[in-house]
Structures are given as structure tokens and as C-alpha cells.
Amino acid sequence: MPSSALTRRACMARSLALCAASGIAAPAPAQERAAAQTMVINLSLEPNSLDPTMAPAAAVAEVVHYNVLEGLTRINEDGTVTPLLAESWNVDAAALNYRFRLRQDVRFHDGSPLDAAAVRFSFERAVAPGATNKARKALFDNMASITTPDAHTVLLTLHHPDPQLLFRLGEGTAVILHPATAAQAASQPVGTGPYRVAQWERGRSITLAKVEGYRHAARVRIRQATFRFIHELAEQDAAMQAGDIDLLFNFVTHTVQRFQDHSRYQLLTGASTGKGMLALNQRRAPLDDVRVRRAITHAIDREAFIRTVLGGRGVVIGSHFSPADAGYVHLASLYPYDPERARALLVSAGVRTPLRLALALPPAPYAHEGGPVIARDLARVGIVADIQRLSWQQWLDGPFKGQFDMTLINHVEPLDYPIYTDPGYYFGYDSPEFRALAQRHASASHARERQQLFAQLQRHLAQDAVNAWIFAPQIGNVVRKGLRGVWMNYPIFAHDIAAMWWE
Q: How far apart are CA 221 and CA 10, in angstroms?
């Protein structure tokens, strides 16, 4: 190799040549993308499936929800719920019986019409043996019956009232699948949305193309959208500088600051329902001891984590609830940063230090940057965190299946506290008291009683120090100037491409 340094232009030329040699088309310049009504979105994590009703990763719905697959209701940026596949609904006085009237102009991408049978199929599939729908406990197990009196009417009867039912029906876990092709939804979903999956280059990108037969095709201005999957900050920065990306999503690191006054990009900062935490495996000693879990929480300087890793864009939390949740209780003060208290708790638990625990990190910037920060905090109290950097698939095959000690992860699903009623969930929390409390909350018929029980749910998890909750992040989207319709706030993680356009 010659010793002389390559110029930036030479580097770009060499990269383009390599792309051509490999058969991969280089991304069009930003001006050409705007003129052709195409766009490129970067996500840190690549989905391992395209079926949000069966796969756990939030990135699945980020790609297909609203774009390829749709549900009965739609959750808007402000958290309100409006009709989508259901044009209307009504509910009885007991809040147990819902009647949904379906739109009659909806067709799947293969041309077949949407009907009530498809809705019933999708919901029954969510509770079938072997189903892995992560909203099963919160939503589908509460459905006592599903009937379809005609092709465009769906009747849902609940076991108990759920004030969040319409919201839950608007999440990616409740999208309606084509009964004849649901088995292939993980790789080739057939939906009712404005886009279809045109190409999936695993490890690199997913491209969506506009469906010309979509019921509102005239309103859809973006003709093609490509999701790229770059998680390393240096690679993200290089792609941005080269103009290869139009929307960099969830850029919650301290480096986001440099885009505030950028000539080509703007920073959109908003709220989300995320809960960033150090998840602890309660199936493994000594993490099965509440004193050890409390010690770990006391050992973490959460304010410093937010300043250092998130650039101050987040707030400290003390339970698995977001400040965006109605009825949120601030419990962070229950475990203030106190290394001395942490060491005393370890002693009382009979833990001999140094205690070695593995710290698994998924390939997200907050995890890769935050892992060493957590490790330094834990080291001050005698806990040695052996960092393991994992791919997303490795994280799903390992920590998410219970093979871990600690893992730094951001749970983005709203109101997902029912996961703590499942002893089989990856961190292994098994509390009959919490399950009973959750059942009382679910079956409560009066608003005040539900509000009180909602607060008790939060306090119970905090007292048990189930996990070490750290932050509720703000969302920092870096958006190319001229691209409109991008959300600032994310009550759910979804990207409604059909609502975007180039100015």
C-alpha cells in the first residue's frame, strides 16, 4: 500500500468503486433524493423480523408499523388515538363490549379486501399456543371473545375494563395480518399500508416502495424509503458528513450537540416513553437478593450518566414507568447515589468483593457509551463488570433468553409494566404480590381506585429494586433540512413515512 494519505474525495471515490464492484448501488445525493421523493433513515438496530406481532425488538415496528402494516386504531404524535382500519367504534356503559366498524375501502397488497375475519384471525393468532406477542398479557389475554357478525363488524368482549384498550390496539403488536400470508410476515409481510417491502439486504438496509393501489395513494409523497442500520457512532458521523442519511433517529448521546447549528441538518428534541435501565437477572445469585439489587442501584450516579452519555437529554427514574405516563410517580429519590450505602448493603448480604458480574451491551450508542460509565460506578463499590459487546441477534439469543448477569437496555414500549407479571420474562422477576396487585389494577372499575393502584404498582417495583432504572430519554432526531412531517415526540416508536415530504 502506498504511504501517502488519501484525500476525503479519494476515499469517497474508492468507496463508490467498491460499492459498484459489489453490486450495491451507492446512495443518491440528497438533492436527487428530494427531487425523486425518496429518503434514507438510519436506525441503530436492525430488526431480526418484520412481524411486530411476534418479534420483541422495537426496531421491527419502527420499519413496518404504519408503513406496511396497520391496526384498527392510530396513535398520533401527541398520544391521542384516532381511527385507522376501524372507521368508528362504540362501547357499552360497562366498558366491556366494543363494536368496531371497519373501513370498506381497504385492501391488502395482494388486492384482497380487509374484512372482519382477518381481524379475528390476527387477534386469535396472538394467543395461540407458542405465540410470542409481547402484548399478550396486557391486551389479548383480556379478550374474552371476538365475534364477527358481518364482514365489516368486529365485536370484542373483555374480561375486565381497560381504559387503554384503544391505545393498545394502535401499537405495532396489534396490526392486522393477511390470514393467507401471516406465516411469511417475518420476512415478507403483506399488509394494508402505503408501502411494501421491496428489498432487505440483511446487515445493511431495508427498502420500502410505495403501493400505487393504496387507498390514499395520492396523499403519499415519499415514493421510496430506505432504512439503514449503522450503530457505531463514528460510522454514523461519516454517513452524515457524506450526506447519505436524511433522518438519524434516536441519537441520544452527548455528540448530538454538534448538530444544533448545522447548515444541512436540524435537531428535533422530544419526549418518549422509554425506560433506560440496568436489567438484573434474578435467577442468578447474588442478584436474587434484594439487598444486592439495591446496592447496585445506589452505586450508579444516574445524574452523571445522563450528563455524560445522553448529553443531559433525559431524566432520572426510579421504576419501570415514564414521566410521560399519566399517573407517574417520581421514585428516583428512593435510591440516591450513595456508594457507601451500596458497600454496606453488599456486606449485609454476605457478598465478598470483588464481585464479578458480566455486563452485556446491545449495539446501541447509549449502551456502548454507557456501559463503561456503569462499570466505573460499580467498581467503586467492589463490583467488577466484565463488558460484553453483543450484536442485536446475540443479545436476543443471550440476555433476552435469560443468559446474562446484567444488561443495559432501553425499554421503549409504553405501559409495558405487565412484563413484571411474567416469571418467564428475561430478568426472571417472580412476585405473587405484584401479580395480585396488577390483577386488582386491571379489574378496578373506578378511576380513582385505578389511579391509586397504578401508584402502588410503581412503588412495589421500586421497593423490590427489580432492576436498576436509570433514565427516561429524550429523543434526539437529526433531520435534513427540508424534510417535513417527522415526529418530535414518540408515544410509540414508529415512523409514519406517508406523512413525510420534501419541502
A: 35
